Structure formats: structure tokens, C-alpha cells
Amino acid sequence: MAKLSKDQIGDLGELLAAADLSRPVAGRFGRPLFRATSLGGKYPTVDFLVDLLADDDSTVGFFLAQVKATNLVAAPSRKRLPVTMPKGKLNELARLPVPAYLIGVDIRSETSYLVAVQRMRREPVSSITKAYNMAVDSVKIGLYEEVLSFWNAVKNVSFPTRFTDA
Amino acid sequence: MPNNQQSQGIKNGGASYVGWRGELLAELALARLPELSVHKPNEDCGYDFLVATPSGVCFFVLVKAFSSKRLSLRRIEEIEELRWTLETQQILRAHESQTPVFIFLIDADTDHGRYLRLDTLQVRKESSDRQTIRFPRENTIDKKGIERLVAGLERSEKALSHH
Lengths: 166, 163
What we know:
The structure holds two protein chains of two kinds.
Chain A: H1 6-22, E1 34-38, E2 48-53, E3 59-70, E4 80-81, H2 87-95, E5 100-106, E6 111-116, E7 128-129, H3 137-155
Parallel strand pairs in A: 3-5
Antiparallel strand pairs in A: 1-2, 2-3, 4-7, 5-6
Chain B: E1 7-10, H1 18-31, E2 37-39, E3 49-52, E4 58-66, E5 81-87, H2 88-96, E6 101-107, E7 113-117, E8 130-136, H3 143-161
Parallel strand pairs in B: 1-5, 4-6
Antiparallel strand pairs in B: 2-3, 3-4, 5-8, 6-7
């Protein structure tokens, strides 16, 4: 593989992650479940706003994601992907009041893996598990159902506002 | 069982995700060659991407996408030729472009794609509103395919500049 700059690795990683997230799943859905929008560095800590899609492509919820790509050679048998994220950045993501995930992308094999970012950490991340491969339909379906259940619970909470257009 | 189909007509099946996913896959295909600079021109331009090579050669990319699932097509990558119908005006517009124009035809379900150069494509009947264009399997969009596209373009641009 030609030598890539850090920015090129990052850009390619984001496109690979977006392609993996949006690939249609088979079975009862038969369509994409997610659409990732890059925030282009305009929001701290977050690379993507990822919409959950209904049948008609409308949004029924979303989650936030940070993407970390690597082109380090790692043996396929290794159970963890070497990606780094400083503790401060990770904890900023964990503090957000909506579902948030870290997506690690192996540029060489063009494979993306996902983990939830929920709890505060005392140490930086140096690797993530490869247990949740985003090329696997059941992983995407599980993610969809998990995030959708969050938004369905929020939808049932009343949200009074004084900013009505009288 | 291999797909021995020689030629298959393709049309946009109207699935809502096809357009945006096709464009994403085209951008990813180009990003696999990190030496290319890929830009999104403004909407008036009529093309989806403007690409520049390190040697300064540029080309436009027009993206068309479809859903193989909705067309009930399997093993699309094995079909020898994919046929697509394009408005004659789009081809004639490409002929007028000073910059080479390529069309990328992408299956939004399987990520399979093929390319064709549009600005040098012969128009069979200018009086007809639409033309059938053909994408051979050898024009598959993968890293090697894009490298071939760029190398071919750089050769032809070099030949033109010597005349």
C-alpha cells in the first residue's frame, strides 16, 4: 500500500466506515439502516452524525460517532484493532446525552468495527475489540434496534416549550 | 453457479437510497487512489466530482446508480455488459466539455461499479432523446480499474498535447 498521510488515512477511514454503515442489510429490512453525515471537523470529538433510516429514507433517530482509522499491519487472528484515542476526547464523547460510538477502521482490509462509548475512562484507548464487525448484518441490526429503543423512550417523554410560533 | 449473462439492461429502480449511496461509493472508489484530488463542484456544473491527478490532468465524474436487488439481479459483477439509457443531451454536453467526462454506474446494493468515458462516446442517433450506453466488465471500478482509467487518460492527454 502506498504511504498515506495521516489526513489521507482519516479521510479514507471515514468513507469506508460510511460505506459499511450504509450497506443494505438482507432479510426483513432489505435496505440501508443508516446514513452517515460527516461533520467535517466542525464539531469537537464527533466525526459523524449517523441517521437511523425508516423504509422511506426518513430519519427515526441518530447516534454520534468518532472514526479512528489505522493502516498498521495487524495479524487477522488478533482480537483487537490498534486505534488510539486520548482519554479526554473519549470522555467528551461519553458525556454526550445521546448514543455515541467509536468506529475503528482497518484500512488494509477495509473492515470497520464498532464499540459503544458510555462510561468515562481513566486511560486513553489503545485498541478496540473486533467483536462487532460492521460488515455483519446482525451487528448493524442490533445497533439499529439499540439506538431506536433509546429514541422511542425519549419520544414518549413530554417536551413542553414556550417557543411556539403564535 | 456462475452468471453467464452476456448483456443486461439496467435502470434506476427508484429506491430512495440509491442516489446518495451511489455517490458515496463513487467517492470511496476515487479515494482508494490517495494521489487523486477529488472535489465536489457546485450544483450548476452538472457533474458530481471533479478529479485532478498529480500530473495536472483533470476529469469530471457523473454518477448514476441503481439497485440490483430491485431489478432481481444476482452476481452483477459477472455480467459481461451492463446497458444503461442516458439522455442524448447529457452525452452531447459532455462532448462540449473541455475537460474529459466519465460516467460511473454503481450498484448501491453490492458496491459493484463500472466506468465509461462520455466525452468521446459516439452518439448513434442525435435525433433520439435517449441513447443506450454499454459498460463492459473490463471497466469495473476497483483500485486497478481507476488506475487504468487515469493511466489511459494521461496517455491520451499527453498524445493530444504533442499535436
